[in-house]
User: Fold N-acetylmannosaminyltransferase from Sedimentisphaera cyanobacteriorum.
Amino acid sequence: KDTVTLLDVTFNNCTMNEALGFIQNGVENSNKGMYFFINPDCLNKTFTDKYYFDILRSADYVFPDGVGINIGSKMTGQTLKQNVNGTDMFPLLCSMCQQRGYSMYFLGAKPGIAARMVSILREEYTSLKIAGYRDGYFQKDGETESVIEAVNKTGAQVLLVAFGVPVQEKWIYENRSRLSPPVVMGVGGLFDFYSG
Ligand code: UDP
Assistant:
C-alpha cells in the first residue's frame, strides 16, 4: 500500500482516479469502509483530540486534502502523487455513481442545505440515483437510531456525512458497523459549499 505519513497520520498516496477506484471497489465488493479527507487544520486537531487521532489511525482511507499536506510531505522527504480533496472529488464521484448506478445519500448541514444541493444535483446528474438526504442536526435529540435506520432502508451505497471535523469522523466511527452503505465518507462543509 502506497502511503505517506505526516505527524503520525498515514495518508493514502494516490491520484484522484485511484481514490475513485478505491470507492468503486468498496461498493462493488460491499466492503464497509471509512473514507476521510485530512487537511492541515485536521492534523492540528489530532494534537488535542486523542480520540479523533485514534479514529484516523483506524480509517480505511485517508486522503490528503490541500497543498499544506503536500508541503509537509516534501519537508519530510516524501512525495504525494496528488492533492485528493473532497471539493475536487465530488463532481467526479457523482459522475462515477451516476455512470455505475450507485445510489448516494447526503447527510448533514443545516436544514434546507442538503435539499438544495440535491435539487442542483438532479439537474446536473439527471440519472444519478439519489437515495435520500437529511440535515445534520439531530444528534442532540437522540434521533441517531432512526436516522441510521432511514439511511439503511434506502439501500444507499455511498453515504456522505457533513457534520464538520471531527464530529463527523466520530459519528461515522461509532456507527460504522450499523450503517449499511459500504462507502461512508466525511465531507465537512461540502454541502454548504456546493449549494451556495
Ligand atoms: N454540521 C452539522 N451538524 C452539526 C454541526 C455541524 O450538520 O451538529 C454541519 C454544518 O452545518 C456545516 C458542516 O457541518 O455544514 C461543517 O462545516 P465546516 O466548514 O465547519 O467543516 P470542516 O471545516 O470541519 O470540514
Summary: The pocket of uridine-5'-diphosphate is lined by residues 108-110, 136-137, 162-165, 167, 188-189, 191-192 (CB under 6 Å). The chain is about 45% helix and 20% strand. The beta strands are 3-6, 9-12, 33-38, 61-64, 103-108, 129-134, 158-162, 183-186. The two ends are 37 Å apart (CA to CA).
